[in-house]
Amino acid sequence: MATPEPTDDALMTAYANGDAAAFEKLYARHQAALYRFVRRLLGTAMSAQTDEVFQDTWLRVVHSRERWAPQGATFRTWLFTLAHHRAIDLLRRSGREVSVDAFESEGDEPWQPEAAAWQHWPAPAGAAPQGEELVFWRRAGEKLLDCLEQLPVPQRSAFLLHHDDGLALDEVARALEVGFETAKTRLRYAMSKLRTCMGAYLEPIRGGAQ
Amino acid sequence: MTDERRPPNDDSEHDAWLREALRHAPDSSAAPPLAVSDAILSQARAAATASMPRPTTSRRAPTRATAPSAVAAWWAWLARPPVAAAFASVMVATLVGLMWWDRPMDEALPYAAPSAPAPAAGRIEATPAPAAARSQTPPIADAARVDAASADSTRPVVTPPAAPAKLARSPAPEPRVKERSEARAAKSDAPLPFPSADKPAEVRAEAERNATDELKKQTAPPATMAPATSAMTAAPAPAAAPLAGRARLAASPPPTSTRDVQEKAQDAAAQGGAATGAVAKSAVAEGPAGNARPSARPAAGQQSTAPPAPEAKDEPTRQLAAAGVARKAEANAFASAQPPVVRSENAAADRREAAPAERPLANLLAALSGDGVRWTRATPSGGNAPVDEALLRWLAELDATAAGGWRPLADRGSTLDAALAFGADATGVRLLFDGRVTALVRIDAGVATLESRRAGAQGSWQAPLNAAAATRLRASLPRLP
Fold first, then answer.
1. Mind giving me the DSSP string for B171-207?
2. Cβ atoms of B239 and B273 closer than 8 Å
3. Distance, in angstroms, between B14 CA and closest chain A CA?
4. Is B458 exposed, middle or buried (0-12, 13-18, 19+ CB in 10 A)?
5. Is B377 helix (H, G, I), strand (E, B) or coil?
6. Helices (H), B337-464
7. Which residues in B102-113 are b (16+ Cβ under 10 Å) and which e?
8. How close does chain B come to A94, measured CA to CA in Å?
9. pLDDT in tens, B425-465
10. For B50-67, what is each residue's pLDDT tens digit?
């Protein structure tokens, strides 16, 4: 019977007690996702600082090991919260606007593109796509990164935390240190803009999803 | 069925298509660099080791266990990008500072005059003994300084601005002059008569002995070698022409009042011909002071009838001659290198002809700077343009290139206007004063020519230029449309 993998909280607790191996496991679990999140959040203009923000985030984890305690938020949420703080600090120091209040007051509901925008897209298959579908999704991924660059930072972080890192909405709100509804609104605005950006660019492929 | 197609499992906060696109984004496989990961893990291990409880059985084991972890922790901290960048910056700054340590900052020094004291001394040495070294720029203030040194050593020392190195030398003779003046004052309070023009040889011998003493006293600072040398070789010069020196002293103060001139003449008569050394410097070559030169000739003629000096005043004469030698040495180092002129009964007139020839372009530059708004430059289209900084710099560069090689040309007589036309292969500039053509600077192949009809500085001069310098100057002349 295979031993279940220890949870993040258990590993962090073990590390706080001096188990360096526990930290190595934690690091191996989350390092790739965290690195992608930091890289996409900073954007192309500040991608050179990705390593710095990434390392600072983990060092904060190291230095906070004795004070850490699971307080409702998961370790992953806490980790991405630290990274988000560090990235926002860097963006503010560089003079980039990170306020999104104006965007959140754009009306009651974010504008939704027409459904035809997805009509010709292939279904997001669970299995690895092949052939034309693989090409399509790779093109879509490239275009999506460009569209993410155009999003305001708060909407971008909400979208990435939810869609790429798998955090639930309440965890997204906790990571962004905003209310639940605010997090939800930011996410919807982000999705609306990304759909518009993606649907207007990509050519529909023939034989797409029904 | 709704018109709006929704992907399966696509609630309002989740879009499977966008998620799928994210999965296939180019950076989906991005990972941190190995160095970063190693640094993080090493720091984490170090921190974990530090937080482990130390065993109480042995005190040596924890030291061995914590030392490498501390080093690892320090190394991991140093490996952080900002720390590493700061450390590298400090190392580069330290290296640059060490490279520049003790380097001479020649570029920080002010521009020095092109005159060379050593070459000037060499040329002076090559001339016959009864030749006088001429200097130009230091005005009557130097002569006044001689007077002040003998009577009151507390007067301020006036030094030429273009020779800052000479500042170190100028105070040196002051104490000795003061001592000699005090000794002389103790001997006699009677005014010294003017030395006789009939006894140039005796005074010359005295000046030679004094110059030798000066040379011995001035050998300690290296900066004084050149002026001391020139002082030694130029020693006969001041004594050889006391009359001309008196004329210069009387004639070339700042042209402010005739009363000043008379007072200077009286002082010089009281102190003898030893002031000729300082007086020689007062052959002012500057533009305004050049106007005083015409008055030197009548003054020289007047002074030629001065009474001879009595024998009993040789000692003070020698002292003042020594002081004058020191002043002359300073002036020689300051002035452009020029060969001394053979003294004659018309030495004043000769000096007037020679002094403008030494630095005619410098005098013109001084006039341009002093009366800038009144000077204009002729344009090829026939108009006039103001004299700008670029032209002044070019003229200064030409003067520096000529390096004191200006020589007066034969009198061109009434053809001066005709001479102010450029040749087909010449490059030059025509300068107007109050709208009238007043000066011409031209560069031909291998020679620079200056023609001037300025009041007090009329004449034509030429200076040799090597081919490369002439080509460069012709190419760099600021052009006008």
1. TTHHHHHHHHHHHHHHH--SPPPPPPTT-HHHHHHHH
2. yes
3. 7
4. middle
5. strand
6. 347-358, 360-370, 389-402, 416-419
7. eeeeeeeeeeeb
8. 15
9. 557 888 888 888 889 998 887 888 898 888 888 889 888 98
10. 766 655 555 444 455 556
Q: What ipTM is given for this predicted complex?
A: 0.85
Q: Is B454 helix (H, G, I), strand (E, B) or coil?
A: strand
Residues whose CB is less than 8 angstroms from the CB of residue B5 and which lie 6 or more positions away in sequence, other chains included: A115, A116, A118, A119
| CA pair distance B451, B462, nearest whole angstrom | 9
Q: Which residues of A touch B22 (CB under 8 A)?
A: 141, 144, 163-164
Contact check, Cβ <8 Å, B51/A20? no
Q: Which chain B residue has its CA at the smallest distance from A62's CA?
A: B44
Instruction: Report the length, in residues, of chain A.
Output: 210
User: B159, B136, B368, B404: which is closest to B252 by C-alpha?
Assistant: B136
Among chain B residues, the shortest Cα distance to A117 is held by: B5
Is B76 within 8 Å of B39 (Cβ atoms)? yes
Residue B69, chain A, CB below 8 Å: the answer is no
CA A68-A69-A74 angle, to 5 degrees, is 100
Q: Is the CB of residue B13 less than 8 Å away from at least one CB of chain A? A: yes
What pLDDT score was predicted for residue B268?
57
Residue A80 burial (CB < 10 Å; 0-12/13-18/19+)? buried
Please choose, from the candidates B334, B52, B21, the residue with its C-alpha nearest in 3D space to the C-alpha of residue B169.
B334
